[in-house]
Design brief:
- There is one protein chain.
- By secondary structure, the protein is mainly alpha-helical.
- Among the domains are: about 90 residues, Crystal structure of tRNA isopentenylpyrophosphate transferase (bh2366) domain (Helix Hairpins); about 35 residues.
- The protein has 15 helices and 4 strands.
- Strands 1-2 form a two-stranded parallel ribbon. It has a two-stranded antiparallel sheet with strand order 3-4.
- Helix 1 crosses helix 2, helix 3 crosses helix 5 and helix 11 crosses helix 13.
- Belongs to the IPP transferase family.
Amino acid sequence: MQMYKGLPIITNKIPEHERNGVPHHLLDFVRLEEQPWTVNQFVKESNRIIHDIRTRGKLPIVVGGTHYYTHALLFKDATLVDEAAESIPDDDQVEGVEDDYPILSRPTEEILQALQEVDPDMARRWHPKDRRKIQRSLQIWLKTGRKASEVYAEQQERRPPSRPTDNDAERPRLGQEASMANEEAALRYPTLLLWLEAEDAVLKVRLNDRVDAMVNRGLIDDAVALTNFEKELFQQGVPVDKTKGIWVSIGYKEMASWLDGGQTPEPKSPQASRALTEAIESVKAGTRRYAKRQNRYIRIRLANALEGADEFGMLFLLDCSNLDNWDTEVAAQAQRLVRSFLVGEKLPDHKSLSELAAKMLSAADEQNLGSDRVARTCNTCDKTLMTEKEWNGHLASRGHKKAVAAQRKREARASQEPGQPHTASSTAAED
């Protein structure tokens, strides 16, 4: 979102005075009416900028953000490279082809049923409610005539063999050619990853406070300006797809109903004031949900990719829970890690930096991520789990056992009613 021109509050761009003279790239240059950039466009332009920075002897720092795009930049095989699939938009661009393939606009269960018919292996990988991924997989089949499962399998085969792990080996220095990393690992460049994280309770308060600060700095004015721009485009006959691009930014879409009601930044009635308060609360909820998705992406997809490249140890979590300790626990640690990385010194165990780092990184390490993703549905609880660990945990949970007991009681009562046959009840173990 920070690539779009203007709207500094909604997109939460870093203010000029906070940049300390450090050049920031790919900010504030895409016009609001432009088609959203695909991930391939982003990777191509980012690689060009990174190359330019490196040739000047400077250190490129990628700041996220939108982890899907960052992931594609860091890993050379993170996006589809099959020629037949090259023209397919990325995960955020499904809606643009729904006119050509009406099935993609149907209810999720119908899209899943169609995917099950043409590519059952891929259908089993996705949660039945994960509409975006189900759409994407069926879209590949419709556009190329090839199964997404086959395309991804070929992509995996093209992954270069992982290099042996050797903590004592000197890491590639910044000045060495990027081709060295391309030959030996899935990462495009020698990369150090710093993950700033905080305890959940602390983070929730911080996110809510952040939205309040954005409101004080002019979030509502930005939202009103974007609404007015939409009206201008409509008057000019320019179509607006509000399902993607700047139109789905957190801070705008949650306030859409309030804005559509013709409200102003200064409510003139108690009803309008309540409506504005509810809209702001929706922005806070959307921000918290997005933070959870970001966290999950790092713990699962990014951690899995790093593990596959034998680079999981390069992901360092810095505990930002207590801002009073920022200088010692975050800034100083980050500087030490970067210095060691740049000169090829041995780095510490990434789980040793803090209790939070040990907890989060150990949890990510133990998941056997991506190896057993198969949708399993517990009919008793009407719940779908995606991994064997989640499935076994659900079967052992108190909630599941209570549901099983309640189901047995209902079946027992039903079998004792007059005129009802006496049959043995099934158990949830058959789920």
